[in-house]
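Look over this today:
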Amino acid sequence: MVDSTTDSNCWFEALANLNNTGVLMISPDNEVQFASTRARELLRCQPGASVTDCISTIGNQLASLLKHARANVDADKRDESYGMESFVPDPDLDIQRKVLVELHPINVHSCTGFLCIIQDQTDQEMLARELEMASRHEAMCRLYKNLAHDLKTPTAAAGYSLDLLQRLIDRLGDVNAETVDKVKKAFELLRESIDMLNGSLYMVLDELTASQLTEAPVNVREILMQAMQLIDPQAKKQEVATDLQLPHQDVVVHGNKHRLKYAILNLMMNALEAMPIGGHLNISLDCPAADVCRIAVKDDGTGIDVHAQNRIFRRHFTTKPTGSGIGLHSAREVIEGMKGAMSFETVPGEGSTFYIDLPMHVE
């Protein structure tokens, strides 16, 4: 049998914790006599703070509820409850956390006053959003799988057509050799683009079926030169100057060349999108240590807003009106799958630099 107020508070504390709910016990003269641990957490109380200081963040709303409840109690309307939403600053996440404050009049035997229930609405809303995103992700996976299967046929047909055209061009011999050479280079780029598309399709299919892509030694210098050739037409269209700085010797890592090229092109295209008219795109490769190489993609575009910087690698997070929020997330997964790391530096309004660090291939 519970005999003391202290023991009663312990039971209130345990019950509140089980329901993940904050509880305030308020006397008939509106004095807060007890605040549960969860209530202090929800109200962001400082360690050692008094109850009065703790409730200061919802003080106005609580006073309004108490005034309304007191009037109804005086009118013998004791069975009604009263609720109101409030916002409490959360310095850890830099957000305003929404809480629901409910007031219940109490009149049981010799116990009178009010019981205030505080519930975290932000956590519930975030959980609901995460469940919705998980459902959307599952639906998108099904869509991607069907799309990848559907695209395999036309890309294969395009590849066969290129083979045929290549053979016809080869038969031209030395007739107008300069023109033939230009056409051959254009076909090489087109062939590389189709090969990359095929590689991306198989990457999606393998990812969705949880199988492994072929991994082998990859020459990073070659990948960067190929990627630069692919984005060069778009860079010229946007009047963006490009600079590719490579070491003289080959730099070899272990992984899948299609995945790596995908990740690098993603960073390059993001850089171009940050410079719609004019700018500089600098791509560099060096080896800061004997067992690691670093790829840097630098632009002098818009930079990344300070509020988005800690979220840009999250799946489905995007700052673009038509973006999917998949590119950077997938690119980082590719690099981490190669035992590497992706990081960035940015100054809003001045530009960004993304880094890819990869371990060197060991024979």
